[in-house]
């Protein structure tokens, strides 16, 4: 069984016991989270596509760790003007292990996933 979920503005195809990297979610390692925005659920020869979401479906996952992505270098230059700006960015990420895919009507004990609160530093 697989599902397509939406989190952090991106879509992920997941199956049970998959480990995925998503944009940062609030929670410590070991906390269970649930994704209610399920776009599609599929099994052996059976496919349910939502319009836009599958009613009653959810995906349960456990947070493995909070980490950061690779550094991305941003370099801006204006030719013949002696103008250069170099900047870097590392995205905060959450590693998730998918524990269960619940089709319409299933119940989950996990908390609903909440995106990280944006803070200005």
Automatic annotation (TrEMBL):
The similarity comment for this entry is:
Belongs to the bacterial ribosomal protein bL21 family.
User: What does the record list as GO biological process?
Assistant: translation
Q: Can you name the source organism?
A: Oceanibaculum pacificum
Task: List the Gene Ontology MF annotations in alphabetical order.
Answer: rRNA binding; structural constituent of ribosome
Alphabetized, the UniProt keywords read: Ribonucleoprotein, Ribosomal protein, RNA-binding, rRNA-binding
Signal peptide per UniProt: none
What is the protein name for this chain?
Large ribosomal subunit protein bL21
Subunit info here reads: Part of the 50S ribosomal subunit. Contacts protein L20.
UniProt cross-references to InterPro entries, sorted A to Z: bL21-like (IPR028909), bL21-like_sf (IPR036164), Ribosomal_bL21 (IPR001787), Ribosomal_bL21_CS (IPR018258)
Its function?
This protein binds to 23S rRNA in the presence of protein L20.
Q: Name one Pfam family in it.
A: Ribosomal_L21p
What's a single GO CC term here? cytoplasm
């Amino acid at each position: 069984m697989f599902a397509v979920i939406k989190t952090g503005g991106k879509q992920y195809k997941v199956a049970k016991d998959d480990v995925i990297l998503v944009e940062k979610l609030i929670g410590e390692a070991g906390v269970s989270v649930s994704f209610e925005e399920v776009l599609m659920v599929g099994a052996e020869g059976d496919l349910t596509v939502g319009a836009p979401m599958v009613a009653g479906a959810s995906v349960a996952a456990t947070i493995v760790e909070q980490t950061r992505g690779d550094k991305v270098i941003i370099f801006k230059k204006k030719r013949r003007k002696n103008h250069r700006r170099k900047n870097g960015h590392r995205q905060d990420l959450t590693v998730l292990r998918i524990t269960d895919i619940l089709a319409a009507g299933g119940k989950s004990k996990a908390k609903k996933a909440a995106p990280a609160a944006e803070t200005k530093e």
